[in-house]
Design goal:
Keywords (chain A): Membrane, Transmembrane, Transmembrane helix
Organism (chain A): Daucus carota subsp. sativus
Largest sheet of chain B: 9 strands, mixed
Shape of chain A: extended
Helix content of chain B: 40-55%
Order of helices and strands of chain A: EHHEHEHEEHHEEHEEEHHEEEH
Shape of chain B: elongated
Structural class of chain B: alpha+beta
Structural class of chain A: alpha+beta
Protein name (chain A): ALA-interacting subunit
Number of strands of chain B: 35
Strand order of the largest sheet of chain B: 16-35-34-33-17-29-32-31-30
Number of domains of chain B: 6
Helix content of chain A: 25-40%
Oligomer: heterodimer
Main location (chain A): membrane
Strand content of chain A: 15-25%
Strand order of the largest sheet of chain A: 3-13-5-11-10
Family (chain A): Belongs to the CDC50/LEM3 family.
Chain lengths: 327, 1190
């Protein structure tokens, strides 16, 4: 489709003075590819896109379909009936037991590793105030670093610095889950759920929580001050702020296969307050494919784009033939 | 040789010129306000002189000095609305309102400002060098001891006495003290001031005229009192006191800076005005700063984008305010994790309106990416590079004068592609200002076989319509065969080399040649060594005649006060003899007389030799002088149609009584001081200039510059209108009109003139009021008659010819609209006898009333006003005068280069700049709208989707190079095809590539692209795990993914929308994308304190994830499909003109001459001018049909 046009050099004085490419460059006469959108080329392009995209779409779709996912919303079910009208009061009331049990039926065999996620909804971790309210230096260096004004209003408590400071850490998600299959307890591996680089380079190995959640208003989870921040993977995962108001975060991995029709019993502590802003809480068990979790969107898009390319190719072919016939 | 010349008192030859009575009244003012200058000649260092503190002679044109450069150019930069806006945002970004860090917003701004300042600096440095060259010229200055020494110009002070040599420029405004001539006259060429090529005569005051020697200035003292510096070139009032004697001074004694000494060995002068106080500098107005239409439109788009910015920012703020207020109800916090109870003002629910206000600022800062910060600087860089290409174009390089094209201002390139009307000067632009004696008719026989440029062009067009190879060959041959003599292009063996003696009327031929050799005012200059004679003539026509006489065997070699000496061939003896002719009177040429005569006494007979225009000469022939009248008239008409200038030659014998009678009357008239002196002289000459005997006629070619007819033809085919504005006579202008094919037989000429009998009658009465009234009425009537004529006839070409006097009325406020309406209807317009000011006014009229782009082209100082007034001024740099070049925007060596400049470079630049701007808006809107979409998902909290540095480097790094490549290198159609299909140029004139439709289309494309990118990305990435290891995508992953897609899409969009790929395009486009990955890698490898959210994001999170790569591919294709389909459809079914040419090239039909002609002839309409139209009009009258491909 591309025709190569090499115009001959104008036989000027310049030609022997400057090397040919330089001369061509100066005279804006470089050899160039000048594609013209001919019908053949357009139709071929679209056709090729179709040929390429539809298979990719099906492959992706297959990968996604192969993922087994169990999603269970528990925020409404885990509130005792007496509190149904005022869920906020329930979650704030420290004296009430937050225990709750959920039964998840495995519809299809799930191969290890099975990833456990919590999913929050309508939760604006991407709010600018929230995102900014942390201090990377303090996370890495701890109390040695004390200009933490960005953490306001959770910078100091009773005159002492808070480690880790800021809204993000303060609002740490603190629902906890334990799983069992029948009587058999399912182990949840909660190591290696955070990014390696975060653990190694962003959260200090010698930085321990200090003065954390000691204020009058308790936000979310508390931290064990004996464990350095770099090992507090829950915190590290939480502090990677989500991009959208509805998000999943990794809780752990079950490293055993689950068979079809198994029932997984989830014992959870429904501590975290999503009731004041009407957010949902879900627990998600999911396997993964080479493409990640279950999401048909990408595969469908590929198929759609591929199909429409094919369609456009056909339309062009038709139009071309028609106009040709008319001539 | 000079000694010989010194003896001649030329003031005697010039009967009427030298003496003009100075207006006495003005001299009363001397010493008063406005006339306070006192110059102490020869003592510039005295206390009295220095205490006056007159300016030095340094002329500065630079904008900045080293000290003021930084503050002044910064100030200039921030006067631009967009730059100022970015400055404000940079300042605001230091406050907590900012959604990103201050450094990231300052870096791009400083790059942009820095680059522009660098450009300014380089330009100013160039000006400085030019200044240094001018100020460093040397002149002989009096040292106070009677000796003169070379000094540089800038050291001159008021009061210095300088000696200027022949052909030197005057370094300052000088008072002429004396010259190499006895009567202290000198000739001055003022071409740089007013563009007039004829020499002006200046004469010193009597008292100093005898100071001919260097030593005589040793004790010279004089005091000059005169007017203060002012801009008026033609007035000067002052008086000089020398040795107690007080003499009045007039402009006659003032030598102006930038004019040149001619025909005079040397002059002495006293410096009166220096440097910026000189009249010429005072007269130079600051060059108007010109901005192109596209840039003005671009400003509008920027304002529109500001509007969009404010709109979306306020939408965001309102939502943000509502949501924020909702966060806190008494004690109950809704989004408790934000701690709305303890919020600072920016997020405080209790002060939600204020928070919303602050948020508005944040949002504006965030969405500034809608407005391309680097647009202005990119455009400037691109234009400078475009200029480099224009300057380097070998096809616009004139080898003979070693002058390439030179773009002096870089910001008008794209205007070159949009020219609607060209206003051209004639002399020096269309013509070479050299007259060539080419044909003559003697005693009814036509001689001369020379071929004029027009005839050549016509022959070429008729013979082989496409290639110009043959012509070049012919030219080469011509050059090789014989050395060309300037001013002589006559070839006819019948009368050359003395063969004329064998012709039927040898005596008449002898008379003819003798007349040519005698009847003129030229001065010979014989080189003693070689024996060659050169002539200094007042006008090139005169020179052409004398040279013709010389070449034909009548060598005029010496002139004394009263005699003209020739070496001529005697027809009887066939030998060369020397003859002296006593000149008794010279009756000068002027525009009303249209003739010139010389009365001489030869062999006891009184002879009157006369040459003049046919309109005045034929009626003056005597009864017995009309022998050849008819056939001569035929010849003259023939010559005129070929665009030649004709003169009729005739003679008459006078009796002694007749002569004596005439001489008395003439002397009385010449010495008269009264107002009717001119009338008296006229009456006297009428007495003798009658009953003439016709000898023959001459035809002089006002030589067109090379390639002018072809160039005009191409420009006309491109649909550009061409107006000729000239100071010449109407006849000459019409000649040239024919010569350039602007006029042709069969074209209806509408002539508007005030040379009507009624007006002339009124002028004789001499009352101004009625004349003006009648003139205006007459002009108005002629204009409306013209309009009626046009309205009544269809499919006919009209030409409008208007003279200067009528133009003055036509340009008055109430008539100009009418005049323009008429002019626009005509195919060609010729304004003759127009003053520089009128040229500028006409230009302004066309520019302002038609709202179209105008281009003025000229070479002389008289064109300066026009050049500055027009949207683009083109100066011709081939000739000497620099004034036009200095005030032009682009200088070219020859008119013919205009074709390439407009059709190729103009078209390319227009296309490049307009595509570039559209693309710029597209890419920024794409980027800005992804930000906006993301905002909607953060309740408009002002959180950017991308890392700070991703944000700020988008414009300056990842997307800037391909745009530059587009702006500098893109070609829709190669130069060859641009020239082959001139109609392509109309794309620029009609502005189809930068129409609102197209701009909005691109913006819409940007919005769509942004939406496609954003939603595909977020839906495909969230909420599930995006990698095999079960990790989910957070903000740090989402941002770079989106960004990758944007960079890919935007760069690929570029690849899809251009159709010209050289290696450079490939490197820039794909390099831009690679650069992004490299940046991501490098930035991610820095310590997390610097790289923050981008730390190792690529190696750890993105690269190993299959979905990241799949999403990129899918998004790119999905986002480009709509545009690609649109473009394919358009190319296939509704191609634009450049598309058609691409088809032709692609289909290989470019070799099919017939088909190409078909496509090209679409550009010819009945109103088109030019050779092609002319030859077509001869063969077949064109109908207005159009041929369509497919």
């Amino acid at each position: 489709m591309a025709s190569e046009e090499r115009s001959s050099l104008s036989a000027g004085v310049e030609s022997h003075r400057a090397p040919v490419p330089v001369h061509q460059f100066k005279q804006q006469n470089l050899p160039a590819c000048k594609p013209v959108l001919t019908p053949a080329w357009v139709i071929t392009t679209y056709f090729l896109i179709g040929v390429l995209f539809i298979p990719i779409g099906f492959i992706s779709l297959r990968a996604s379909m192969g993922v087994v996912e169990i999603v269970d919303r528990y925020d409404t079910e885990c509130v005792p009936n007496s509190y149904k009208s005022d869920k906020v009061a329930y979650v704030k009331d420290m004296s009430v037991s937050k225990n709750c049990t959920r039964y998840l039926k495995v519809k299809k065999r799930m191969k290890a590793p099975i990833y456990v996620y919590y999913e929050l909804d309508n939760y604006y971790q991407n709010h600018r105030r929230y995102v900014k309210s942390r201090n990377e230096q303090q996370l890495l260096h701890g109390l040695r670093y004390n200009s933490t004004s960005s953490c306001r209003p959770l910078e100091l408590n009773k005159g002492l610095p808070i480690v880790p400071c800021g809204l993000v850490a303060w609002s740490l998600f603190n629902d906890s889950y334990s799983f069992s299959r029948g009587a058999e307890k399912l182990n949840v591996n909660r190591k290696n759920i955070a990014w390696q680089s975060d653990r190694d380079h962003k959260f200090g190995k010698k930085v321990h929580p200090f003065n954390f959640q000691n204020g009058t208003l308790i936000g979310g989870g508390k931290l064990d001050s004996r464990i350095p921040l770099s090992d507090q993977e829950d915190l590290i995962v939480w502090m990677r702020t989500a991009a959208l108001p509805s998000f999943r975060k990794l809780y752990g991995r079950i490293e055993e296969d689950l068979d079809e029709d198994d029932v997984v019993i989830v014992n959870l502590l429904n501590n975290y307050n999503t009731y004041s802003f009407g957010g949902k809480k879900k627990i998600v068990l999911s396997t993964s494919s080479w493409l990640g979790g279950r999401n048909n969107f990408l595969g469908m898009t590929y198929i759609l784009v591929g199909a429409s390319s094919m369609f456009i190719a056909l339309v062009f072919l038709l139009l071309h033939k028609l106009s040709w016939a008319r001539q | 040789m000079p000694g010989r010349r010194k003896k001649i008192r030329f003031s005697k030859i010039y009967t009427f010129k030298c003496k003009t009575a100075a207006a006495k009244d003005d001299h009363l003012h001397i010493g008063g306000p406005g006339f306070s200058r006192v110059v102490f000649c020869n003592e510039p260092a005295s206390f009295e002189a220095t205490s006056r503190n007159y300016a030095d002679n340094y002329v500065k044109t630079t904008k900045y000095s080293p000290a003021t450069f930084v503050p002044k150019s910064l100030f200039e930069q921030f006067r631009r609305v967009a730059n100022f806006f970015f400055l404000v945002t940079a300042i605001v970004s230091f406050t907590p309102i900012a959604p990103y860090s201050a450094a990231s917003s300052i870096l791009p701004l400083s790059i942009v400002i820095g680059a522009t300042m660098l450009k300014e600096g380089v330009e100013d440095y160039r000006r400085k060098k030019q200044d240094d060259e001018v100020n460093g010229r040397k002149v002989n200055m009096h040292q106070g001891d009677g000796s003169f020494k070379l000094c540089i110009w800038k050291e001159l002070r008021v009061g210095d006495v300088v000696k200027v040599q022949k052909d030197e420029f005057f370094p300052a405004d000088l008072l002429l003290l004396s010259s190499s001539y006895d009567d202290a006259i000198c000739y001055v060429e003022t071409m740089n001031l007013d563009g007039e090529t004829n020499l002006k005569l200046k004469q010193s005051p009597e008292v100093t005229s005898s100071l001919h020697e260097d030593s005589s200035y040793k004790n010279f003292k004089a005091t000059i009192k005169c007017e203060d510096p002012n801009a008026s070139l033609y007035t000067f009032v002052g008086s000089m006191e020398v040795e107690e004697e007080k003499v009045p001074l007039s402009p006659q004694q003032l030598l102006l800076r930038d004019s040149k000494l001619r025909n005079t060995e040397f002059v002495y002068g006293a410096v009166v005005f220096t440097g910026h106080e000189t009249k010429v500098i005072q007269n130079s107005t600051a060059p108007p700063s010109k901005r192109s239409n596209i840039e003005r439109k671009m400003d509008k788009i920027i304002y529109f984008l500001f509007g969009v910015l404010f709109l979306i920012a306020s939408v965001g703020s309102i939502v943000f305010g509502i949501v924020t207020k909702d966060d806190l109800h008494g004690d109950r916090m809704k989004r408790w994790y934000l701690r709305p109870d303890k919020a600072e003002i920016f997020f405080d629910p209790e002060r939600a309106p204020e928070a919303a206000m602050y948020h508005f600022l944040t949002a504006i800062l965030l969405y500034t990416y809608l407005i391309p910060i680097s647009l202005y600087v990119s455009i400037e860089v691109v234009k400078v590079l475009q200029c480099v290409f224009i300057n380097q174009d070998i096809d616009m390089y004139h080898e003979e004068t070693d002058k390439p094209a030179y773009a002096r201002t870089s910001n008008l390139n794209e205007e070159l592609g949009q020219i609607h009307t060209i206003l051209s000067d004639k002399t020096g632009t269309l013509t070479c200002n050299s007259m060539e004696f080419i044909k003559c008719s003697i005693a009814g026989t036509a001689y001369g076989r020379g071929v004029t440029e027009v005839e050549r062009a016509m022959a070429k067009r008729l013979g082989s319509p496409l290639d110009g190879i043959k012509d070049q060959k012919k030219d080469m041959e011509n050059k090789n065969t014989k050395p060309r003599i300037k001013g002589f292009n006559f070839e006819d063996e019948r009368i050359m080399n003395g063969n004329w003696v064998r012709e039927p009327h040898p005596l008449i031929i002898q008379g003819f040649l003798r007349l040519l050799a005698i009847c003129h005012t030229a001065i010979p200059d014989k080189d003693e060594d070689t024996g060659n004679v050169t002539y200094e003539a007042e006008s090139p026509d005169e020179a052409a005649f004398v040279i013709a006489a010389l070449q034909l065997g009548f060598e005029f070699y010496q002139r004394t006060q009263t005699t003209v000496s020739l070496i001529e061939l005697d027809p009887d003896t066939h030998e060369k003899v020397q003859r002296d002719y006593d000149i008794l009177n010279v009756l000068e040429f002027n525009s009303t007389r249209k003739r010139m005569s010389v009365i001489l006494k030869y062999e006891g007979k009184f002879l009157l030799l006369c040459k003049g225009a046919d309109s005045v000469m034929f009626e003056r022939l005597g009864k017995n002088g009309r022998e050849f009248e008819e056939i001569t008239r035929e010849h003259v008409d023939e010559y005129a149609d070929a665009g030649l200038r004709t003169l009729i030659l005739a003679y008459r014998e006078l009796t002694e009584e007749e002569y004596k009678d005439f001489n008395e009357k003439f002397k009385a008239a010449a010495n008269a001081v009264s107002e009717d002196r001119d009338t008296m002289i006229n009456e006297a000459t009428e007495l003798v200039e009658k009953d003439l005997v016709l000898i023959g006629a001459t035809a002089v070619e006002d030589k067109l510059q090379q390639g002018v007819p072809e160039c005009i033809d191409k420009l006309a085919q491109a649909g550009i209108k061409i107006w000729v504005l000239t100071g010449d006579k109407m006849e000459t202008a019409i000649n040239i009109g024919f010569a350039c094919s602007l006029l042709r037989q069969g074209m209806k000429q509408i002539t508007i003139t005030l040379e009507t009998p009624e007006i002339k009658q009124l002028e004789k009465v001499g009352e101004k009021g009625p004349i003006a009234q009648a003139s205006k009425k007459s002009v108005m009537q002629q204009i409306s008659e013209g309009k009626d004529l046009i309205a009544s006839s269809k499919n006919e070409a009209f030409a409008l010819i208007i003279d200067g006097k009528s133009l003055a009325y036509a340009l008055e406020d109430d008539l100009k609209k009418m005049f323009l309406d008429l002019a626009v209807e005509c195919s060609s317009v010729i304004c003759c006898r127009s003053s520089p000011k009128q040229k500028a006014l006409v230009t302004r009229l066309v520019k302002e009333e038609t709202k179209k782009t105008t281009l003025a082209i000229g070479d002389g100082a008289n064109d300066v006003g026009m050049l500055q007034e027009a949207d683009i001024g083109i100066g011709i740099s081939g000739v000497e005068g620099m004034q036009a070049v200095m005030s032009s925007d682009i200088a070219i060596a020859q008119f013919k280069y205009l074709e390439r400049l407009l059709l190729v470079h103009g078209h390319w630049c227009y296309r490049r700049i307009s595509s570039m701007i559209c693309y710029f808006f597209y890419k920024n809107i794409t980027f800005g709208f992804t930000l906006f979409c993301y905002e909607a998902y953060t309740t408009f909290s002002g959180q950017a989707a991308y890392n700070d540095w991703f944000l700020s480097l988008y414009n300056v790094f990842f997307t800037s190079l391909p745009v530059l490549a587009l702006g500098v290198f893109d070609q829709d159609v190669s130069a060859r095809f641009c020239l082959k299909f001139p109609l392509l140029y109309q794309e620029g004139v009609q502005n189809v590539l930068f129409s609102w439709r197209r701009i909005i289309g691109w913006m819409f494309n940007g919005v769509c692209t942004a939406i496609i990118i954003f939603f595909l990305c977020i839906r495909a990435l969230e909420p599930q795990a995006f990698k095999k290891d079960g990790k989910t995508a957070d903000m740090d992953v989402m941002g770079p993914t989106l960004y990758t897609c944007v960079v890919w899409v935007v760069n690929c969009q570029m690849a899809v929308s251009i159709s010209y790929f050289t290696l450079i395009q490939h490197i820039f486009i794909w390099g831009g994308i690679c650069l992004w990955y490299f940046f991501l890698l490098a930035y991610g490898a820095l310590s997390p304190t610097i790289s923050t959210t981008a730390y190792k994001v690529f190696i750890e999170a993105l690269a190993p994830s299959a979905s990241y790569w799949l999403i990129t591919l899918c998004v790119v294709i999905a986002a480009l499909t709509p545009y690609f389909s649109y473009k394919s459809l358009q190319m296939q079914f509704f191609p634009m003109y450049h598309g058609m040419i691409q088809w032709i090239r692609h289909d290989g039909q470019s070799e099919d001459t017939e088909y190409c002609n078909l496509v090209r002839q679409r550009s010819i309409r009945h109103t088109t001018v030019g050779i092609m139209a002319r030859s077509l009009a001869r063969t077949n009258p064109l109908t207005g049909s159009t041929h369509r491909r497919r």
